[in-house]
Amino acid sequence: MGAGAAVWLLGHRDQEASRLRKLLAPHARQPSPMPRWQQLITAARGRLRPEGWCLAAGATVALLGESVVPLAVGAAGVPLAAGVRRARDARREREWRRAAVIAWLGELAAEVRVGRQPGDALRLTLQDSVDAGAGPGAARSTVLAAARFGGDVPGALRSAAREPGAEGLLGLAACWRVAVDRGAGLAAGLGRLEAALRSERDQRADLRAQLAGARSTAVMLAALPVLGLLMGSALGAEPLRVLLHTGPGLACLGVGGVLEGVGVWWALRIVRRAEER
Asked: Which residues does 129 contact at the CB level (< 8 Å), separation at least 6?
């Protein structure tokens, strides 16, 4: 009886503390707002794309060097920066879709192993992915419709596999056709397919980590001319005036810029081809 009374008192005390926290929550100390300049910087980072920063850098150098050449170079670099950004976003989306396919295959294999029919497991896991906004990609609705209304599921999977990063669905289409047409076990095939895709993803990540040093070295070497300009300005040589307001300086700037761009492109192309292989 005494223990029951103690438990009741502890529960009552917890309820009172919770009620007190709710009453005092509106009067709690609010975090201090950020300064105006910090808010502007945060908003600029969220809205200004990399190509915008390229143009801003060109405008800054143009003001420092009192020449329109850096501004023109910055404006010319906007399409290049936009292409790099689009390629980066496409690569991220492709990696996200690969991870989503692997996760979905794992869920599908788990549902089949517990005894659920392949069609029911496919509909259940796909419906969950549609509701969560995840899954193998935008074509998941087509696969879901084919599984729900008795359509060509392997054909829908092959169509979904055309999206970048969803190539693993081709293996699922083959496993599905063999399991449905010949009565083979689907769970074992899904397990092997998931393991193969995970191994391939891990190998790709390991290769990317090994090539990160080469990519960083190429970018660092590309930034050395900027360091030379800063050192020349610190020594009082006025390199911007020489490069932007004299004939030989403009010639050196043009030739050096072309060689710099070709060198960076070639180095990154070697790294990219190594990743693809």
From this structure: 100, 104, 135, 136, 140
